[in-house]
Amino acid sequence: MSVVGIDFGNLNTVVAVARNRGIDVITNEVSNRATPTLVSFGDRQRWLGESAKTQEVSNFKNTVSTFKRLLGRPASDPELQTIEKKFINARLSEGQDGEAAVTVRYVNEEHTFSGTQLAAMFFGKVKEFTAAEINLPVTDAVISVPGWYTDHQRRALLDACNIAGINCLRLMNELTASALGYGITKLDLPDTTLDANAKPRNVVFVDMGHSNFQVSVVSFVKGKLVVKGTAYDRNLGGRDLDELICQHFIKEFDAKYKMDIVSNPRAVFRLRAQCEKVKKILSANAVTLLNVESLLDDKDVSAKVSREEFESWAAPLVARIQEPLRVALSLAKLTPDEIHSVEVVGGSTRVPCVKDAIAKVFGGTLDGENKLSYTLNQDEAIARGCALQCAILSPVFKVRDFSISDWNGYPVEVAWDASFNTKGTDAALEVFPVANTQPSSKNLTFYRAFKPEEADAKEVGYTITARYTDKAIAERYYPAAQTTTICEWQLSGIKKYDESGRADIRIKARLDANGIVNIENPFQQVVVEKTVPVPAAASAKSSTSSLDSAADAAAPESPATPTQTQKVVEKHPLTLKLKYATGHASDAIATWQSAEGDMAAADRLVIDTAEKRNALEEYVYYARDKLDTTWREFCPEDARTQFQNELRAMEDWLYTEEGEEATKSVYAEKLAALKKQGDPIMARFRESEDRPIAERDFKATA
Ligand code: ATP
Ligand code: K
Ligand code: MG
Which ligand places an atom closest to the C-alpha of 15? Predict the structure, then answer.
């Protein structure tokens, strides 16, 4: 069983695995520890991950990034146009059930793929290179998500796993995964089993990656972490810094060289890629050069950029990071001086002015004393935390358990059809408020009235809905345009057991460890009056009294077993039918699963065919060389000439259109035919090579 942790990043995905020695980050097929989160579409095949990266400029409109931010979001979300569109080269569109999608050219046709499908394609690749590295098929995994992912996004990600054939044991909030890695490796955490008054250690985790900024305040004692508060800027990441530099130079180059860069999306993309390089260099250097060859109309551009300039442009963006830090602290009801340290992760926390701004919130500066700490590997902490969680959940590994109490970010209410209310007008109850622990479950009771028209009904139903509250939208980071409904269920089998005029319905609402809401265990509670035998002890007593009375009256011949009527509480299970849930319908998933299978088979066929063509080509060169050298004396001259001619003809054919485009089996047949001639020659040559050794060995033993 595989024990795998995946940090599904918007730019880079990192995979860690648990092995006997501990947790290792694995490398992909080109030995990189991070894999570009990219999918590219071609005339015959797809390219996934690293190979898609090499297509990004040449196959511009058909190479798709940023699907982590399309997944589970409605295509109508205005932020897709105002924000995401800047960073997606493919054409944004709408998927089957309203999910954000892209439209690309693939196998010479237009195809629309939803965020969920794109993620599934990419996960297929992650599975492949991980399996190659661990020599095991990848089944189980723990995958991280931004803390602000809604139920919709979380279920869509699970759907993507399902399509890709990954059994996701847990979705983990990215910073909670980092916190787990911290908690398990720190051996000096306050131990409440030794000292009941030991104060927990409060650590702030900050992640600034490619696309977002996240803060989580976590308190630790030995063996346990509790998330106390979280806050985000969903739209503040490294890509925004790149864009800022890019916009600056678009203006500058237009003034300097009269270049209309904006009119050419590919040029903007290439310029932004160089700006990212510049930004990274400026993290360690005071000044650098921006260079792009033939950016537009074969014109090269270059400019000097200093860190000072960059910081002055970035100032308004960097100023935004203080807000989520303050909000998270205040939600956790902690002041900066109660914080032990600030652990930073994510690529963009390497930017000095970002670090400085974080340090300042905690009363320090980057150059002076500060609370910033780098215990965790900035790029790998999240993947490692996920692999640790997977190891904890997996029966294969023995890992000390570490208890995690996560924090609910979006308040959830359960609502019902108020027209059945027995009193009052309430139609909803907040069950998981902000800051509720996660996982968590709550038992709920509903009293459903029977309406006059239901007088003769044998059974009735009831609709229950779980949804995010309006407060989620007003006060937290709820995505615009996303429905707040999470699930809708139809309860059936409700019966009228008595004349009380109402049914007493019980359900359990759950906010599970994945951050997903569900209800379970529905039943109708009924109080029935039953005639029951009087319990033994009581019956002994009562028989004494009957004996007493027997003294006065004529004793009955044989007294009947004493009974009594009693109120008994019974639980009658109800049927719960899910009518709507976020995520995708199961038939859509099944369709996508089979489409994914077909696309993966087509990709494999392209690779296999190229391998067969290569093998044929290699053999042509190999045999021609051998015929001129070592095989020469083992083949009569006329046969040799004929074979040489055939080999030359085969080489020519390989470069004809037909030879470039043939099928796997044609290449295989042609190779077999050549080998049929070559193999006997090679055999004679080998035999002659082996003979002297055999003769010598014979002599030695004789
Ligand atoms: P997200 O967390 O938004 O989903 P991600 O996990 O893929 O994205 P990371 O891998 O944490 O993101 O970080 C990538 C970002 O970090 C990029 O914007 C990259 O330019 C930036 N980055 C990496 N190294 C440096 C550096 N030395 N200086 C400045 N920025 C850097
Ligand atoms: K990452
Ligand atoms: Mg990240």
Answer: 2
394 Cα–ligand 3 center, Å: 24
pLDDT of 696 over the 70 cut: no
**pLDDT tens for each residue of 613-657:** 999 999 999 999 999 999 999 999 999 999 999 999 999 999 999
* Whole-number average pLDDT of the chain: 93
CATH among 3.20.20.370, 3.40.50.460, 3.30.420.40, 3.40.50.300 for 1-186+375-402: 3.30.420.40
User: Ligand 1 centroid to 141 CA: how many Å?
Assistant: 23
Mutate to test the pocket of ligand 1, among 83, 144, 149, 210 (most ligand atoms within 8 A of CB): 210
What count of residues does the chain have? 702
Mean pLDDT of 648-676: 96
Q: Could you tell me if 204 and 178 are in contact, meaning their C-beta atoms sit under 8 angstroms apart?
A: no
Q: Which amino acid is at 694?
A: A
The mean per-residue pLDDT over the stretch 352-368 comes to 97
pLDDT > 80? residue 359: yes
Mutate to test the pocket of ligand 1, among 145, 274, 280, 358 (most ligand atoms within 8 A of CB): 280
Percent of the chain with pLDDT over 70: 95
Question: Does 466 sit in the ligand 1 pocket, CB within 6 Å?
Answer: no
Q: 209 CA to middle of ligand 1, Å?
A: 4
Within the chain, which residue ranges are assigned CATH 3.30.420.40?
1-186+375-402
Q: Once rounded to an integer, what is the mean pLDDT over residues 536-542?
A: 56
For ligand 1, atom 24, which residue shows the shortest CA distance?
A: 347
> Count of alpha carbons within 13 Å of 402, Cβ hemisphere only?
26
pLDDT in the model for residue 6: 98
203 burial level (CB within 10 Å; 0-12, 13-18, 19+): buried
Q: Per-residue pLDDT tens for 552-570?
A: 444 455 567 788 888 889 9
Domain 589-701 has CATH 1.10.10.10: no
| Ligand 1 atom 26, closest CA | 280
Residue closest via CA to ligand 1's atom 16 equals 347
Cβ(157)–Cβ(172) below 8 Å:
no
- ipTM surpassing 0.90, yes or no? yes
DSSP E strand stretches across 50-120: 63-64, 91-94, 100-106, 109-114
User: In sequence order, what DSSP letters do the residues of 308-356 get, joined into one string?
Assistant: HHHHHHHHHHHHTTHHHHHHHHHHTT--GGG--EEEEESGGGGSHHHHH
Please indicate whether residue 409, judged by its CB atom, sits closer than 6 Å to ligand 1.
Answer: no
User: What 3-state DSSP class applies to 55?
Assistant: coil
Q: Which CATH architecture has domain 238-319?
A: Alpha-Beta Complex (3.90)
Ligand 3 centre distance from Cα of residue 343 (Å) = 14
CATH classification for the domain delimited by 408-530+569-584, as one of 3.40.1190.20, 3.40.47.10, 3.40.462.20, 2.60.34.10: 2.60.34.10
What atom of ligand 1 comes closest to residue 378's alpha carbon?
11
